[in-house]
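Please describe what follows:
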Amino acid sequence: CKPSVNNNTIDFSHSGFSIYRNVSTSEVSELVNKAVREFKRQSGERVEVWVPQEQPVYIIVNPLEFELVIINLLRNAAQALQELGVLNPKVALTIKREDNKALIAIEDNGHIEKEKIEKLSEPTNSTKADGLGLGLQIVRSIIENHGGKIFFSQAASGGLRVEIRLPAEETTEQ
């Protein structure tokens, strides 16, 4: 049976870690674009997703876990935009290299108060009325297990900006 993002989520949520530790050097935009395609397939493309990239950026990750991270963050953005009633919901993903880090930023065109942003950094906290905050906790754990960090801030548009920083690789060679 081929591992899937859903199986990975179940394994991770039950055990606190994924049983799939196969990491590989991957080009970030390839992984992100695959996650965006899966998100659009699941969501019916209700949200416009834009993914510009300046140059190839390589990271060492478990591809399924990274896909899970991106899909979860896109799903959160889409749900927030829908709850806010944003007429033309948009999510922008930017990928770039800064020094020895890969920077993946996800911004939506909604509106979020700064108090809610501060709560997103707290474990098992959610801005959703019926949310438990487990999705973000899993995202945070996956990123930290890959040597990275996640940050939340208000985008220039007033929406949420989620920034992931992971160690970048120089080449595709391991």
